[in-house]
Write a structure and sequence with these properties.
It is a single chain. Strands 1, 3, 4, 7 and 16 form a 5-stranded antiparallel β-sheet that branches. Helix 3 packs across helix 5 and helix 4 crosses helix 5. The chain has 2 domains: 130 residues, Immunoglobulin-like (Sandwich); 200 residues, C8orf32 fold. The protein is α+β, with helices and mostly antiparallel strands. It is built from 8 helices and 16 strands. It is globular and about 60 Å long.
Length: 339
């Protein structure tokens, strides 16, 4: 039992940020997402170009970010660039309920950080009741998680299927996703996390980006993506991506209004539904992605408040957050290395 590496892929990536400080700003603090080292992600030296001093800093959850600080009576717009090579390995897990058991009380205490609420992921009576209804009180973390996975596939629609009438929340909200029955990857996985934690299953969200096959070598941003890791005794952390799996249910038609969005919401493209891929994404994830961080409500030294998620950047001018596209932009581009 436990996760093991599968196929691998190697990429050369350029992660560029353009920062446009507001007029009169005197203190600019910037935290930029950077690739993490983990057993399934080998990162070569990150080369940083910045006109201002920079260093790598931690948050409170074991992640690392590139930090740039600029001071002065008048801070001009500037660019920060990270260039790195990365080899990602597919994550494969045999998800057999027979390989695990319900958590012991001591394990529940040890996993408390992955069982409580986040700002957009409440663990409360509403979610506990729904989780109980879905799982039937099943305390095996693998079989209960699969029931939550299947319920989500049946009851929530990825917004890109019907972009003319569905939309995502701007913050990744479990409550929005439950009420509207739609959303993007962060909405899907916030809802799943709220239900799983409410059922006593330790869960964390992973933020990253796809290296989208159709954008290889192109001057086009990869946006961001997120997925799930839940913990089961005897197995460890188990991945799943119920948001992408929802596309492979195949309960919608591709058309001129959704085709581009659907294709760019997957790692390697989309043609039609595939039940095998629905099963694959419970316990496995493809190699065409990069991990930026794990967790929500990140505490960064010097930031004005906990950060909901940091899959791109968090920038403050004189203690006030700057919005993406207004105060900064980001572009992640890549080229796949062939052997």
């Amino acid at each position: 039992a436990g996760a093991r590496p599968g196929a691998s892929a190697t990429f050369e990536a350029r992660h560029a940020f353009t920062v446009t400080p507001p007029a009169g700003a005197k203190d600019l603090r910037c935290w930029f997402a950077m690739p993490q080292q983990d057993p399934f992600q080998e990162v070569s030296v990150v080369r940083v170009t910045s006109p201002h001093p920079h260093r790598v800093v931690p948050d409170d959850q074991g992640n690392w970010f590139l930090y740039v600080e600029a001071k002065g009576p008048s801070i001009a717009p500037f660019e920060v660039v990270e260039e790195f090579g990365i080899t990602r390995r597919e994550v494969l897990t045999d998800v057999d309920p027979a390989d695990t058991r319900p958590l012991f009380p001591g394990e529940t205490r040890d996993m408390a950080a992955y069982l409580g609420s986040d700002a957009q992921v409440p663990v409360n009576e509403e979610f506990r009741k729904l989780a109980l209804d879905i799982t039937g009180g099943d305390r095996n973390p693998v079989s209960a998680s699969r029931k939550l996975y299947d319920w989500t596939l049946k009851n929530v629609e990825y917004w890109v299927k019907y972009p003319d009438r569905l939309k995502a929340s701007p913050v990744g909200s479990a409550e929005y996703c439950l009420a509207s029955k739609t959303g993007n990857c962060t909405d899907f996985h916030s809802l799943w996390t709220a239900l799983a934690r409410s059922a006593g299953i330790p869960t964390r969200m992973v933020y990253g980006s796809f290296f989208k096959k159709s954008l290889d070598g192109k001057d086009a941003d990869q946006s961001y993506h997120c997925w799930i890791e839940f913990w089961a005794p005897g197995i460890g952390w188990i991945v799943h991506d119920v948001a992408v799996a929802d596309l492979f249910v195949g309960d919608f038609a591709l058309n001129d209004g959704n085709r581009e969005k659907v294709v760019l919401t997957t790692a390697a493209g989309y043609e039609k539904g595939d039940p095998a891929m629905v099963d694959y994404y419970f316990g496995n994830i493809d190699a065409r992605r990069v991990v930026w961080h794990r967790g929500r409500d990140l505490v960064l030294e010097g930031a004005s408040a906990p950060v909901n998620m940091l899959a791109k950047a968090w920038i403050e001018a004189d203690g006030k957050p700057l919005k993406e596209k207004e105060g900064w932009t980001r572009k992640l581009t890549f080229r796949e290395e062939t052997r």
